[in-house]
Amino acid sequence: RMLSHVYTLQIKGYDRLLTMTDGAMSISPDLKQKAQIIQNAIYYAHLLFTRIYHN
């Protein structure tokens, strides 16, 4: 599984969290790598929002 970077921003005055992936970690990913980055982001979002809404 490909290593990727995911981060979440909370902006004052904006009612949603913004999640970004791979700002500079994967410079030119191919299609398979892009799919892995998306899967990593989905996994991260699931963990994050499960902790937020079930605590």
Q: What is the secondary structure topology, with strand pairs?
A:
Blueprint: E1 6-10, E2 17-21, H1 31-53
Antiparallel strand pairs: 1-2
Model description:
With 55 residues, the protein is an alpha+beta fold. It is built from one helix and two strands; from the N terminus they run E-E-H. The longest helix has 23 residues, at 31-53. The radius of gyration is 13 Å and the shape is flat. The termini are far apart.
Going across the biggest sheet, name each strand in turn: 1-2
- Structural class of the secondary structure composition? alpha+beta
Q: Describe the main β-sheet briefly.
A: 2 strands, antiparallel
Distance between the termini: 29 Å
- How are helices and strands ordered from N to C? EEH
Give the overall form: flat
Q: How many strand units?
A: 2
Domain module tally: 1
Q: Unreliable runs, pLDDT <50, ≥5 residues? A: none
Helix proportion range: 40-55%
Rounded Rg: 13 Å
Q: Helix segment count?
A: 1
Q: Strand content of the residues, in percent? A: 15-25%
**What is the arithmetic mean of pLDDT?**
87
Name the descriptors.
55 residues; alpha+beta; two-stranded antiparallel ribbon; 2 strands; 42% helix; 18% strand
Q: What is shown here, in short?
A:
By secondary structure, the protein is an alpha+beta fold.
